[in-house]
C-alpha cells in the first residue's frame, strides 16, 4: 500500500475532482462514513454503538468536516453524540446548543462523561504550531485519559499537531489508541516521535478510483501483499523445487547464529539447508539441527584460499547464500569473504546464488574502501544502525527518525544493493530507489539472535525464487508477525522473547497472512 506525503495526497484529491468529478464534499462524505464503519467494527463484538457516549472535537477545516459526517452516522446508529466546535467555542450535546453555562465548564463535564473522544481538529492542513487554546483543550483530554484509562481516543486522518510528512509532533499533540487515516497512510506515521502517537492504524476508503495511483515511491508492507508473494506449494514438488540455501555463518564464540539462520530459512519453506562449518563445530550443529546438511570447511587457521575453495566447490546448485551472522572478523575470514565474492561475481546471473550479507559479513566489508564494488548484482544487505554507520564512513544513523528513509534510498542507489535498514520501523530500499516500510514493530524483538532469524528468512525466500526486494519485504513483515504470535502464545508482554522462540511460529505467521486485513 502506498504511503503518501501531504502534497501527494493533495494532488490525488485534485485529480479525483478534475478527472472523476469527485469533489471535496463527496470525498468527505465517503471519509466520514468509512471512519464510522471502522470505528464500529473495532467496537464489536464487545461493545455496541447504542448508548455509547462519543465526544467529537471539531476543527475549522475538512478534518472537522469528516468528523461531522462520522458523528452523523454514529448518531443514526444509536450513539449519544456531543460536538465541540473549537473555532466557534460551541458545544452541542445530543443536538442541543449549550448556552446557559460557561462553555468551558460544560466541556469539562462532557470530557469526563465520554466513553470515546474523537480528534477531528486538524488533519493534513495543519500549518503552524497549535494555538494555546487548542493545546489547552487537548491537555484536558490527556488529563482525563491519565485519570481514566478506559476513555478511548481516536484520531481522524491523524492526531492533531502531528506533521504528516516528518513525524514531528506539536507539544500539544496527544497519543491516541486508534488512528483512522483516510485513503493512504501518511509518511510521518512511520517515524518517531510520530509513530508513538498513532496507536492502531486503520485505513479508511474514501472512494478514490483505483486508476488514481499516488506518485510515491514508498510503500507500507501489508499482510495481503506478503500473502501474494509467498511461493506456491504445488502437489507435484520435491525438496529441489524449493531451493537450497548455503550458510557461511557461525564461529566458535558465536555458534548459535548459524543454527538460528539456517532453521529460519527452513521455516519459511526452503528445500534444503547446508551449513558450511569446520569439523570442530560440527558436533554442535549435528546434535541441535537434525535437518541440516553440512559442507565441511578447513579449520579457521587454515589458509584463506583453502577455506574459500572448499566452500566454492560446494556452492553449485545453491539458490541462496547467506554470509555473516556470527562469522567473526579475523583478517583470514575477511579474505575468505573476498574470494567468495570474487567467485560469485564471475558467475553468470542464472548460475549465481542470491547473496545476503549480514552482521560480521558487513563488519568485514566496511573495513574496505569502496566495498560495494565487490558485491555481485542484486545483493541484499541487512545492517542495523551501527553497521549502517560503519558502512557509510561513520555517519550517525537514527533508529527510527525520518532521515533514515532518505539515507537508505540514497545509499541503495549509490551502492546498487537491496538495503534493509533495521530499526523500530525497518525499511528496505532497492537499487532503483523504491522503498518499503514495515509498520509493525515489536520491542520484544530487541534481543540477540533475532537478526540471524531475519537474515535466514530472507535467504529461505530467495532460495524459493522471490526477488531480493520481495524476499526482504516478506521476511521483515513475517518476522514481526512471528514475534507477535510468540507474545500471544507465550503470554509475553514486551520482554523475555528468545530468538529461538520465533522459529516454530514462523510457519504460523505465513498462514496468518491469509486473513490479514492490512
Ligand atoms: N485529501 C483528501 O483527499 C481528503 C481529505 N479530507 C480531510 O481533509 C483534511 C485536510 O483538510 P484541510 O481543510 O486542508 O485541513 P485541516 O482540516 O487539517 O485544517 C485546515 C484548517 O485549519 C486551519 N489551521 C491550520 N493549521 C492550524 C493551526 N496550527 N492552528 C489552528 N488552525 C490551523 C487552517 O487555516 C484551515 O482553516 C484531511 O486531513 C482529511 O481529514 C477529506 O475530507 C477527504 C478527502
Ligand atoms: K485529526
How do the strands and helices of this protein lay out in sequence?
Elements: H1 6-20, H2 24-43, E1 53-58, H3 62-76, E2 80-85, E3 90-93, E4 96-97, H4 103-113, E5 116-120, H5 132-147, E6 152-156, E7 178-182, H6 195-198, E8 200-204, E9 218-220, H7 223-229, E10 244-248, H8 256-267, E11 272-278, H9 282-288, E12 293-297, H10 304-314, E13 320-323, H11 331-346, E14 354-357, H12 359-366, E15 380-381, H13 385-391, H14 403-415, E16 418-421, E17 427-429, E18 435-437, H15 450-463, H16 468-490, H17 499-512
Parallel strand pairs: 1-2, 1-5, 5-6, 6-7, 7-8, 9-18, 10-11, 10-13, 11-12, 13-14, 14-15, 15-16
Antiparallel strand pairs: 2-3, 3-4, 16-17, 17-18
Which CATH architecture of the largest domain?
Answer: 3-Layer(aba) Sandwich
Number of helices: 17
Principal-axes geometry comes out as: elongated
The poorly predicted ranges are none
State the CATH class of the largest domain: Alpha Beta
Strand content: 15-25%
Query: What does the main sheet amount to?
Result: 10 strands, mixed
Total strand count, please? Answer: 18
Give the C-alpha Rg.
26 Å
How are the strands of the biggest sheet laid out side by side? 9-18-17-16-15-14-13-10-11-12
CATH domain fold name of the largest domain: UDP-N-acetylmuramoyl-L-alanine:D-glutamate ligase
Ligand roster: ligand LP7C6HRI, potassium ion
Helix content range? 40-55%
In whole angstroms, the N-to-C terminal distance is 9 Å
Question: Which structural class do the helices and strands define?
Answer: alpha/beta
Number of domains: 2
Keywords: ATP-binding, Isomerase, Lyase, Metal-binding, Multifunctional enzyme, NAD, NADP, Nucleotide-binding, Potassium
Subunit structure: Homotetramer.
GO molecular function, one term: ADP-dependent NAD(P)H-hydrate dehydratase activity
Organism: Dictyobacter vulcani
Amino acid at each position: 500500500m502506498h504511503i503518501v506525503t501531504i502534497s501527494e495526497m493533495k494532488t490525488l484529491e485534485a485529480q479525483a475532482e478534475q478527472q472523476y468529478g469527485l469533489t471535496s464534499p463527496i470525498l468527505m462524505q465517503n471519509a466520514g462514513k468509512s471512519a464510522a464503519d471502522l470505528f464500529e467494527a473495532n467496537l464489536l463484538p464487545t461493545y455496541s454503538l447504542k448508548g455509547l457516549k462519543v465526544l467529537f472535537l471539531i476543527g475549522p477545516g475538512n478534518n472537522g468536516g469528516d468528523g461531522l459526517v462520522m458523528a452523523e452516522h454514529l448518531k443514526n446508529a444509536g450513539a449519544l453524540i456531543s460536538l465541540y466546535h473549537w473555532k466557534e467555542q460551541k458545544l452541542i450535546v445530543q443536538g442541543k446548543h449549550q448556552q446557559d453555562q460557561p462553555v468551558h465548564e460544560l466541556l469539562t463535564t462532557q470530557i469526563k462523561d465520554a466513553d470515546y473522544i474523537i480528534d477531528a481538529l486538524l488533519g493534513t492542513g495543519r500549518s503552524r504550531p497549535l494555538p494555546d487554546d487548542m493545546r489547552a483543550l487537548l491537555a484536558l483530554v490527556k488529563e482525563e485519559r491519565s485519570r481514566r484509562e478506559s476513555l478511548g481516543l481516536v484520531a481522524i486522518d491523524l492526531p492533531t499537531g502531528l506533521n504528516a510528512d516528518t513525524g514531528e509532533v506539536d507539544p500539544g499533540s496527544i497519543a491516541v489508541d486508534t488512528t483512522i487515516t483516510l485513503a493512504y497512510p501518511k509518511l510521518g506515521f512511520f517515524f518517531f516521535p510520530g509513530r508513538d502517537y498513532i496507536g492502531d492504524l486503520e485505513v479508511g476508503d474514501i472512494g478514490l478510483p483505483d486508476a488514481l495511483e499516488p506518485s510515491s515511491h514508498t510503500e507500507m508492507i501489508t499482510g495481503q501483499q506478503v500473502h501474494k508473494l509467498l511461493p506456491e506449494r504445488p502437489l507435484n514438488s520435491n525438496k529441489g523445487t524449493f531451493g537450497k540455501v548455503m550458510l557461511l555463518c557461525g564461529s566458535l564464540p558465536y555458534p548459535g547464529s548459524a543454527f538460528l539462520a539456517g532453521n529460519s530459512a527452513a521455516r519459511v519453506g526452503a528445500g534444503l539447508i547446508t551449513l558450511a562449518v569446520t569439523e570442530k563445530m560440527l558436533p554442535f550443529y549435528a546434535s541441535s539441527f537434525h535437518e541440516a546438511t553440512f559442507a565441511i570447511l578447513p579449520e579457521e587457521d587454515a589458509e584463506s584460499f583453502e577455506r574459500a575453495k572448499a566452500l566454492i566447490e560446494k556452492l553449485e546448485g545453491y539458490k541462496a547464500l547467506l554470509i555473516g551472522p556470527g562469522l567473526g572478523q579475523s583478517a583470514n575470514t575477511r579474505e575468505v569473504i573476498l574470494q567468495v565474492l570474487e567467485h560469485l561475481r564471475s558467475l553468470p546471473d542464472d548460475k549465481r546464488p542470491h547473496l545476503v550479507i549480514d552482521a560480521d559479513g558487513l563488519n568485514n566489508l566496511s573495513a574496505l574502501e569502496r566495498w560495494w564494488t565487490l558485491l555481485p548484482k542484486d545483493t541484499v544487505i541487512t545492517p542495523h544502525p551501527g553497521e549502517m554507520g560503519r558502512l557509510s564512513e561513520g555517519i550517525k544513523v537514527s533508529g527510527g527518525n525520518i532521515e533514515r528513509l532518505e539515507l537508505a534510498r540514497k545509499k541503495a542507489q549509490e551502492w546498487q544493493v537491496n538495503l534493509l535498514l533495521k530499526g523500530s520501523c525497518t525499511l528496505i530500499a532497492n537499487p532503483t530507489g523504491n522503498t518499503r516500510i514495515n509498520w509493525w514493530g515489536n520491542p520484544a524483538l530487541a534481543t540477540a539472535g533475532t537478526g540471524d532469524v531475519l537474515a535466514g528468512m530472507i535467504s529461505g525466500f530467495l532460495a524459493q525464487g522471490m526477488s531480493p526486494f520481495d524476499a526482504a519485504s516478506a521476511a521483515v513483515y513475517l518476522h514481526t508477525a512471528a514475534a507477535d504470535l510468540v507474545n500471544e502464545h507465550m503470554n509475553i508482554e514486551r520482554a523475555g522473547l528468545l530468538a529461538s522462540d520465533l522459529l516454530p511460529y514462523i510457519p504460523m505467521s505465513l498462514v496468518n497472512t491469509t486473513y490479514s486485513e492490512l
